[in-house]
Amino acid sequence: DTEVTQTPKHLVMGMTNKKSLKCEQHMGHRAMYWYKQKAKKPPELMFVYSYEKLSINESVPSRFSPECPNSSLLNLHLHALQPEDSALYLCASSQVPQPTYEQYFGPGTRLTVT
Amino acid sequence: AQTVTQSQPEMSVQEAETVTLSCTYDTSESDYYLFWYKQPPSRQMILVIRQEAYKQQNATENRFSVNFQKAAKSFSLKISDSQLGDAAMYFCAYRSPRSTSGTYKYIFGTGTRLKVLA
User: Fold this and answer.
1) In this structure, is the dihedral angle defined by the CA atoms of residues B20, B26, B31 and B36, taken in order, positive or negative?
2) From A41, A42, A99, residue closest to B98, measured CB to CB
3) Which of A18, A50, A51, B91 could cysteine-pair with B103, CB 3.0–4.6 Å?
4) Mean pLDDT, chain A, integer
5) How many contacts (CB atoms, under 8 Å) link A and B?
Protein backbone atom coordinates (compact mmCIF):
# COMPACT_ATOMS: atom_id res chain seq x y z
CA ASP A 1 0.00 0.00 0.00
CA THR A 2 1.71 3.16 -1.22
CA GLU A 3 -1.20 5.47 -0.76
CA VAL A 4 -1.87 8.62 1.19
CA THR A 5 -5.58 9.34 1.55
CA GLN A 6 -7.19 12.64 2.40
CA THR A 7 -10.73 13.50 3.36
CA PRO A 8 -12.81 15.33 2.46
CA LYS A 9 -11.96 15.95 -1.22
CA HIS A 10 -13.79 19.26 -1.19
CA LEU A 11 -14.78 21.52 1.69
CA VAL A 12 -16.70 24.78 1.73
CA MET A 13 -16.81 26.60 5.02
CA GLY A 14 -17.80 29.97 6.38
CA MET A 15 -15.41 32.18 8.28
CA THR A 16 -17.00 31.29 11.61
CA ASN A 17 -17.01 27.52 11.08
CA LYS A 18 -14.78 24.91 12.63
CA LYS A 19 -13.77 22.01 10.43
CA SER A 20 -11.01 19.42 10.19
CA LEU A 21 -9.01 17.88 7.37
CA LYS A 22 -7.84 14.32 7.70
CA CYS A 23 -4.86 12.50 6.24
CA GLU A 24 -3.99 8.82 6.57
CA GLN A 25 -1.16 6.55 5.44
CA HIS A 26 -0.31 2.95 6.21
CA MET A 27 3.20 2.79 4.78
CA GLY A 28 4.90 3.00 8.17
CA HIS A 29 6.17 6.49 7.42
CA ARG A 30 7.06 8.45 10.53
CA ALA A 31 7.22 11.90 8.92
CA MET A 32 4.05 13.64 7.80
CA TYR A 33 3.57 17.04 6.21
CA TRP A 34 0.89 19.62 5.53
CA TYR A 35 1.25 21.88 2.49
CA LYS A 36 -0.91 24.68 1.15
CA GLN A 37 -1.06 25.08 -2.62
CA LYS A 38 -2.63 28.00 -4.43
CA ALA A 39 -3.60 27.66 -8.08
CA LYS A 40 -0.61 27.47 -10.43
CA LYS A 41 1.80 27.80 -7.50
CA PRO A 42 4.14 25.32 -5.81
CA PRO A 43 3.20 23.68 -2.52
CA GLU A 44 4.12 25.77 0.52
CA LEU A 45 5.16 23.86 3.60
CA MET A 46 3.01 24.48 6.67
CA PHE A 47 3.86 21.80 9.24
CA VAL A 48 6.08 18.76 9.63
CA TYR A 49 5.56 15.97 12.15
CA SER A 50 8.33 13.55 12.98
CA TYR A 51 7.50 10.53 15.14
CA GLU A 52 4.17 12.16 16.00
CA LYS A 53 5.85 15.32 17.30
CA LEU A 54 5.60 18.69 15.63
CA SER A 55 9.09 19.47 14.37
CA ILE A 56 8.52 22.29 11.88
CA ASN A 57 5.91 25.06 11.96
CA GLU A 58 6.45 27.53 9.16
CA SER A 59 4.95 30.48 11.03
CA VAL A 60 1.44 29.41 10.16
CA PRO A 61 -1.42 31.46 11.69
CA SER A 62 -3.01 29.91 14.76
CA ARG A 63 -6.33 29.48 12.95
CA PHE A 64 -4.64 26.35 11.55
CA SER A 65 -4.00 23.75 14.22
CA PRO A 66 -2.30 20.46 13.32
CA GLU A 67 -2.61 17.24 15.24
CA CYS A 68 -0.93 13.85 14.87
CA PRO A 69 -2.88 11.37 17.05
CA ASN A 70 -0.86 8.36 15.90
CA SER A 71 1.76 7.35 13.37
CA SER A 72 -0.80 6.82 10.58
CA LEU A 73 -3.03 9.83 11.02
CA LEU A 74 -2.60 13.56 10.59
CA ASN A 75 -5.31 16.16 11.11
CA LEU A 76 -5.53 19.85 10.36
CA HIS A 77 -8.11 21.70 12.44
CA LEU A 78 -9.49 24.87 10.92
CA HIS A 79 -11.17 27.73 12.77
CA ALA A 80 -12.07 31.29 11.83
CA LEU A 81 -10.45 31.07 8.42
CA GLN A 82 -10.22 33.91 5.93
CA PRO A 83 -11.15 33.83 2.24
CA GLU A 84 -7.44 34.00 1.34
CA ASP A 85 -7.03 30.62 3.03
CA SER A 86 -8.93 29.04 0.14
CA ALA A 87 -6.48 26.62 -1.50
CA LEU A 88 -5.62 22.98 -2.09
CA TYR A 89 -4.29 21.44 1.12
CA LEU A 90 -1.89 18.59 0.50
CA CYS A 91 -0.73 15.98 2.94
CA ALA A 92 2.46 14.01 2.37
CA SER A 93 4.49 11.40 4.19
CA SER A 94 8.03 10.05 3.99
CA GLN A 95 10.38 7.64 5.66
CA VAL A 96 12.66 8.76 8.47
CA PRO A 97 15.49 8.56 9.20
CA GLN A 98 16.40 6.80 5.93
CA PRO A 99 17.51 9.56 3.60
CA THR A 100 16.68 8.02 0.26
CA TYR A 101 12.94 8.22 0.27
CA GLU A 102 10.83 10.81 -1.41
CA GLN A 103 7.52 12.19 -0.21
CA TYR A 104 4.28 10.50 -1.11
CA PHE A 105 1.45 12.95 -1.61
CA GLY A 106 -2.27 12.61 -1.05
CA PRO A 107 -4.78 13.93 -3.59
CA GLY A 108 -5.49 17.00 -1.49
CA THR A 109 -8.52 18.71 -0.02
CA ARG A 110 -9.80 21.67 -1.99
CA LEU A 111 -10.92 24.22 0.57
CA THR A 112 -13.12 27.21 -0.17
CA VAL A 113 -13.72 29.77 2.55
CA THR A 114 -16.77 31.96 1.99
CA ALA B 1 18.60 29.82 2.52
CA GLN B 2 18.02 27.24 -0.15
CA THR B 3 16.12 28.25 -3.26
CA VAL B 4 14.85 26.40 -6.31
CA THR B 5 14.25 28.19 -9.61
CA GLN B 6 12.35 27.00 -12.64
CA SER B 7 12.69 29.67 -15.31
CA GLN B 8 10.21 28.18 -17.79
CA PRO B 9 6.60 28.77 -16.67
CA GLU B 10 5.29 26.85 -19.68
CA MET B 11 6.68 24.52 -22.33
CA SER B 12 5.14 22.74 -25.31
CA VAL B 13 6.30 19.59 -27.05
CA GLN B 14 5.01 17.61 -29.97
CA GLU B 15 3.94 14.07 -29.22
CA ALA B 16 6.87 11.61 -29.62
CA GLU B 17 9.42 14.44 -29.43
CA THR B 18 11.89 15.24 -26.65
CA VAL B 19 11.67 18.14 -24.23
CA THR B 20 13.95 19.40 -21.48
CA LEU B 21 12.72 21.24 -18.39
CA SER B 22 15.22 23.40 -16.50
CA CYS B 23 15.83 23.72 -12.80
CA THR B 24 18.55 25.49 -10.85
CA TYR B 25 18.98 25.59 -7.11
CA ASP B 26 21.10 27.27 -4.54
CA THR B 27 22.51 25.61 -1.43
CA SER B 28 25.65 25.58 0.65
CA GLU B 29 25.10 21.94 1.58
CA SER B 30 26.96 19.06 -0.07
CA ASP B 31 24.60 16.25 0.87
CA TYR B 32 21.08 16.65 -0.47
CA TYR B 33 18.53 15.12 -2.79
CA LEU B 34 16.74 16.49 -5.82
CA PHE B 35 13.41 15.39 -7.22
CA TRP B 36 11.10 16.01 -10.11
CA TYR B 37 7.41 15.73 -9.29
CA LYS B 38 4.54 15.67 -11.76
CA GLN B 39 1.10 17.08 -10.93
CA PRO B 40 -1.51 16.43 -13.66
CA PRO B 41 -4.58 18.71 -13.67
CA SER B 42 -6.81 17.87 -10.70
CA ARG B 43 -4.77 14.81 -9.94
CA GLN B 44 -2.28 13.65 -7.36
CA MET B 45 1.34 14.77 -7.28
CA ILE B 46 3.64 11.87 -8.01
CA LEU B 47 7.39 11.41 -8.10
CA VAL B 48 8.98 11.25 -11.54
CA ILE B 49 12.64 10.83 -10.68
CA ARG B 50 15.13 11.40 -7.86
CA GLN B 51 18.83 12.20 -7.79
CA GLU B 52 21.23 11.84 -4.88
CA ALA B 53 23.75 14.69 -4.83
CA TYR B 54 26.65 12.36 -3.99
CA LYS B 55 26.07 10.32 -7.15
CA GLN B 56 27.75 11.53 -10.30
CA GLN B 57 25.69 9.29 -12.53
CA ASN B 58 22.53 10.86 -13.86
CA ALA B 59 19.30 9.15 -12.81
CA THR B 60 17.11 7.54 -15.45
CA GLU B 61 13.57 6.18 -15.24
CA ASN B 62 12.32 4.82 -18.55
CA ARG B 63 11.62 7.86 -20.76
CA PHE B 64 12.69 10.31 -18.05
CA SER B 65 16.28 11.25 -17.37
CA VAL B 66 18.09 14.07 -15.64
CA ASN B 67 21.18 16.11 -16.37
CA PHE B 68 22.64 16.80 -12.94
CA GLN B 69 25.45 19.36 -12.89
CA LYS B 70 26.41 19.69 -9.24
CA ALA B 71 28.99 22.43 -9.65
CA ALA B 72 26.58 24.51 -11.70
CA LYS B 73 23.69 23.62 -9.35
CA SER B 74 21.57 22.59 -12.28
CA PHE B 75 19.09 19.72 -12.47
CA SER B 76 17.20 19.47 -15.75
CA LEU B 77 14.62 16.85 -16.71
CA LYS B 78 14.56 15.32 -20.16
CA ILE B 79 11.39 13.59 -21.36
CA SER B 80 11.89 11.43 -24.42
CA ASP B 81 9.14 10.17 -26.74
CA SER B 82 6.63 12.54 -25.13
CA GLN B 83 3.13 11.20 -24.64
CA LEU B 84 -0.20 12.97 -24.14
CA GLY B 85 -0.26 11.65 -20.58
CA ASP B 86 2.92 13.59 -19.81
CA ALA B 87 0.96 16.84 -19.86
CA ALA B 88 1.13 18.21 -16.34
CA MET B 89 2.75 20.74 -14.05
CA TYR B 90 6.30 19.64 -13.24
CA PHE B 91 7.93 20.72 -10.00
CA CYS B 92 11.59 20.51 -9.21
CA ALA B 93 12.22 19.96 -5.50
CA TYR B 94 15.25 20.13 -3.23
CA ARG B 95 15.46 18.17 -0.03
CA SER B 96 17.76 19.48 2.66
CA PRO B 97 20.01 17.34 4.85
CA ARG B 98 18.36 15.84 7.90
CA SER B 99 17.60 18.30 10.69
CA THR B 100 18.34 17.70 14.36
CA SER B 101 14.71 16.64 14.78
CA GLY B 102 15.20 13.95 12.16
CA THR B 103 13.10 15.53 9.44
CA TYR B 104 13.85 16.88 6.01
CA LYS B 105 12.66 20.10 4.46
CA TYR B 106 11.47 20.05 0.87
CA ILE B 107 11.63 23.21 -1.20
CA PHE B 108 9.72 23.35 -4.45
CA GLY B 109 10.33 25.41 -7.56
CA THR B 110 7.52 27.43 -9.11
CA GLY B 111 6.73 24.74 -11.65
CA THR B 112 6.71 24.34 -15.42
CA ARG B 113 3.45 23.57 -17.17
CA LEU B 114 4.10 21.08 -19.96
CA LYS B 115 1.69 20.87 -22.88
CA VAL B 116 1.91 17.92 -25.23
CA LEU B 117 0.60 18.57 -28.72
CA ALA B 118 -0.96 15.75 -30.72
Assistant:
1) negative
2) A99
3) A50
4) 91
5) 64
